[in-house]
Design a protein that fits this description.
Ubiquitin-like (UB roll); DNA polymerase, domain 1; 6 helices; binds FE2/S2 (inorganic) cluster
């Protein structure tokens, strides 16, 4: 099959890829562009490990064919931190031990970031709905939900000591995460 050129922004950086049109966004980002944060769990749209944000909406990148992101804004987990400042949900996952093996975490973080951006005051129920498409085989859901809840309740605080060298952003600074790509 003939190759095609697809242009989009990846974490704010313009990229051009020349590839077969049947390849997925996940394949291109990992194999061609070298960003390995997004994971392939199922490859069939069931686990959420590959979640990215495309034009402000979460997608299962294993189901997105690369031509579908022509001229789009794509954000991966590598794009959540801005200028060395962790996104509030990243810091909250650390502070609340919201991870075990870590395999699901990149996708969880993307869904969590989208959830708090869409609804900065999300309740526990709304957070659980926002994360419903992300499966954790370690079943660490409670700590993950508590972490996101700390962000929406405004109890997530900046780290102290050495960690303050790369401070997290506060709840009031959620919007640039996804919007800065546009
Ligand atoms: S790898 Fe995409 S949803 Fe599981
Ligand atoms: S932390 Fe292991 S799959 Fe979620």
């Amino acid at each position: 099959m003939a190759k095609t050129v697809v242009q989009f922004t990846l974490n704010g950086n313009p990229v051009d890829v020349y590839t077969e049109p049947f390849r997925t966004l996940l394949e291109v980002v990992r194999d061609d562009l070298g960003l390995f944060g997004s994971k392939e769990g199922c490859g069939t749209g069931d686990c959420g490990a590959c979640t990215m944000i495309v034009d402000g909406k979460t997608v299962n990148s294993c189901l997105v064919l690369i031509p579908e992101v022509q001229q789009a804004s794509v954000v991966t987990v590598e794009g959540l931190a801005v200028n060395g400042h962790l996104h509030p949900v990243q810091q909250a996952f650390i502070d609340h031990s919201g991870l075990q093996c870590g395999f699901c975490i990149p996708g969880m973080l993307m869904s969590a970031a989208a959830t708090v951006q869409d609804n900065p005051d999300a309740t526990e129920e709304e957070i659980r709905i926002g994360l419903a498409g992300n499966l954790c085989r370690c079943t660490g859901y409670d700590k993950i939900v508590k972490a996101v809840l700390a962000v929406t309740q405004g109890t997530q605080v900046a780290p102290a000591g050495e960690a303050a060298a790369a401070p997290s952003r506060g709840k009031e600074d959620l919007s640039p995460v996804i919007m800065f790509q546009e």
